[in-house]
Specification:
18% strand; 8-stranded mixed β-sheet; 8 helices; single chain; globular; 30% helix
Length: 293
């Protein structure tokens, strides 16, 4: 149960399952959390290898607070995955320029403002949209470059073992990154693994990849929607320094950065996934308050 705007209790919003078709014809699994009298719309853009069900608590909370919320699975992930990932081909950037683009186009209209709430990769995807102006803002949690040099020493070692030892062995055997065997989340398409690994070798991600750097810099220069970028100080994958390196390429956006200490939420740790767990409700309320100011 949740508390409504009048102070009473209302039953949690149940999502409606749906599909949205991307520009290239790929069908994406969607869940719609509808508020009776919505004050705005939220598109939830998730992290790499994290299915949309992980964001249900946030989406339900926001819907009960008066926001229409759309969550979705990127192609190759969750309910948008094919029967097998072996032989499945895609570009890692397709999650933004095709998948998120389709969801935004389906959701945004002229009657209500539409806002992006993003986790990790989702905060990168804003810059990949064909038309970022369809959105009025982005709140990004745990978004950064992925370069291991920003990570604590032990986490840096673990990530290098994943990229250079475990990853190649698993992908040769399975034909994709069977990430679930390592307890990290959903299995990933081979192309996602290979591109992610390549770009995470650069302190500034694909903005330093000589093959595409000029293209990516130009894409991100188009974005002028306000951004709030929040990273926990105990996020070992994407600490604040990693965030700052990535966000610097949204050169024409008004960016507010927040370094979040877990103790501010009354918890001992948040890490990279805690932003969307139950204990983060005060953080969600801050975001929703931002969207109604």
């Amino acid at each position: 149960m949740s508390t409504n705007r009048a102070g009473g209790h209302t039953p949690d919003v149940e999502p409606m399952t749906d599909q949205v078709t991307a520009a290239d014809g790929y069908r994406l699994a969607v869940r719609r959390y509808s508020a009776p009298d919505p004050r705005a719309r939220i598109v939830m853009a998730g992290a790499t290898g994290v299915p949309q069900g992980f964001y249900r608590r946030f989406a339900t909370h926001a819907a009960n607070a008066g926001f229409d919320v759309v969550t979705f699975d990127y192609r190759g992930i969750g309910d948008s995955a094919p029967a097998t990932l072996r032989g499945f081909r895609m570009d890692y950037r397709d999650w933004g320029r095709l998948d998120l683009a389709a969801i935004v186009e389906d959701t945004a209209d002229d009657h209500l403002s539409t806002h992006l709430v993003a986790h990790s990769y989702g905060g990168q995807a804003l810059g990949l949209l064909p038309d970022p102006s369809r959105l009025q803002s982005m709140h990004a949690f745990g978004t950064g470059t992925g370069w291991s040099g920003y990570m604590p020493r032990l986490e840096r070692l673990r990530v290098r073992l994943l990229w250079d030892l475990a990853g190649p062995v698993i992908t040769r055997s399975a034909g994709y990154l069977a990430w679930s065997r390592l307890g990290f989340g959903e299995d990933l398409p081979l192309d996602v693994y290979q591109q992610w690994k390549r770009w995470c070798r650069y302190p500034h991600h694909y903005f330093e990849d000589p093959d595409i750097s000029s293209e990516m810099i130009a894409l991100f220069e188009r974005v002028d929607v306000p951004i709030v970028a929040i990273n926990s100080t105990d996020d070992r994958w994407i600490p604040p320094g990693s965030r700052d390196a990535f966000m610097s390429f949204y050169v024409n956006a008004k960016i507010t950065t927040r370094d979040l200490r877990p103790s501010a939420l009354g918890v001992s740790s948040l890490g990279h996934m805690g932003y969307f767990r139950e204990e983060a409700k005060p953080l969600w309320n801050d975001v929703l308050a931002d969207l109604t100011d």
